[in-house]
Design brief:
The chain is an alpha/beta fold. It has two domains: 180 residues, FAD/NAD(P)-binding domain (3-Layer(bba) Sandwich); 102 residues, 3-Layer(bba) Sandwich (FAD/NAD(P)-binding domain). Helix 1 packs parallel to helix 2 and helix 1 packs parallel to helix 6. The longest helix is centred in the last third of the chain and has 21 residues. It starts with a strand and ends in a 13-residue tail after the last helix. Bound molecules: flavin-adenine dinucleotide. The site of flavin-adenine dinucleotide has 35 residues, from strand 1, helix 1, strand 2, helix 4 and helix 6.
């Protein structure tokens, strides 16, 4: 049986692994990738100590620091985390099961889909959820970005460097002032405020979209790429139903990252912790590891866990 399994290796999971290793535990990290969402950020300007760094470079530095501690890492998807006698079972999507006395869930978030006809069909054939990954495919093309928040504006900013024209569709603008100033008015940017996507059109690949406004009007835009940036959903489904979640589906934790199940901790964007940022996820990961170390040291004399308020 492992002492501690950490599911997810974004900023939260990797920081948890570092802190756990430095506490003398032997954390076993299971994750689909190293770096998580932070890899998708072309410019991180708010991680202390780095004035301006690519998200993927920052995550490489995290990984280097974790690897230097000799942390065990397995790349793969976790399908289920469930209570078992004396701890938890962590089952991968390919049928391996790890037993652990304690688990930290740091599975972050995933893009929220639009839920319109054509989206699922053209996923990977013109519909994308990652500008950093796919922008080079649309050099010189007309593309659309859906979403008027920070993610949408960051996506439009990144695409303006290479795409011929960028249509930005949103029911309302919520992006920060700094990002708005960077994007609005740039050549090639066409803002469709008050318009939402109704359907995605294509043959072999995407060739357009149908947008509609609040008054039932419709228009068609000819675009080859559609970048969906309308928010994120927590990846908390891997954990059994008994764990407390809030209305947004985030795992509810207390100030030490403890869930309502003794021995199960959660950190970062998958939780109800305030502020979805790299620096916050990293800090929460550190807290979760310290709490897990305390739990493992004192589990036999365990204080009964207090039910958490759902926020
Ligand atoms: C486009 C974009 C730009 C951003 N820019 C910034 C920025 O400039 N500054 C900033 O501070 N924040 C930024 N953020 C937010 C920041 O990236 C997140 O807050 C942070 O990455 C959250 O870290 P996390 O470790 O909680 O989750 P994530 O980064 O989401 O990591 C989750 C990890 O869990 C793994 N995982 C998920 N499900 C499973 C499973 N079932 N089995 C195994 N592994 C699993 C994933 O592969 C990943 O490794 C940005 C986010 C996006 C999307």
């Amino acid at each position: 049986m492992e002492e501690l399994v950490i599911v997810g290796a974004g900023p939260a999971g990797m920081t948890a692994a570092l802190y756990a290793a430095r506490k003398g535990l032997r954390p076993y990290v299971l994750s689909e990738d190293l770096g998580g969402q932070a890899n998708w950020s072309s410019r991180v300007e708010n991680y202390m100590g780095f004035k301006d760094i690519r998200g993927s470079e920052l995550m490489e530095r995290f990984a280097e620091q974790v690897k230097a501690q000799g942390v065990a890492y397995e790349e793969g998807r976790v399908a289920r985390v469930e209570r078992r006698e004396g701890g938890f079972g962590v089952r991968t999507a390919y049928g391996r099961e790890h037993a652990a006395r304690a688990v930290i869930v740091a599975t972050g978030k995933r893009p929220r889909p639009l839920g319109v006809p054509g989206e699922a069909e053209f996923r990977g054939r013109g519909v994308s959820y990652c500008v950093l990954c796919d922008a080079p495919l649309y050099r010189g093309a007309a593309v659309a970005v859906v979403g008027g928040g920070n993610a949408g504006f960051q996506a439009a900013y990144d695409l303006l460097g290479s795409a011929r024209e960028v249509h930005l569709l949103t029911d309302r603008l919520t992006a920060d002032e700094t990002l708005r100033r960077r994007v609005l008015g740039r050549p090639g940017l066409i803002l469709h405020e008050g318009w939402v996507v109704k359907a995605i059109l294509g043959g072999e690949a995407v060739h357009g979209l149908v947008a509609t406004d609040g008054e039932g009007r419709e228009k068609e835009l000819a675009v080859e790429g559609i970048f969906v940036e309308i928010g994120l959903l927590p990846n908390g489904e891997v954990v059994e139903e008994a764990v407390a979640r809030n209305e947004a589906g985030e795992i509810v934790v207390d100030c030490a990252c403890r869930t309502n199940l003794p021995g199960l901790f959660a950190a970062g964007d998958v939780t109800n912790a305030c502020g979805k940022q790299i620096i916050i996820a990293a800090g929460e990961g550190a807290k979760a590891a310290l709490a897990a170390a305390d739990y493992l040291a004192f589990a036999d004399k365990a204080v009964k866990s207090v039910p958490l308020p759902v926020q």
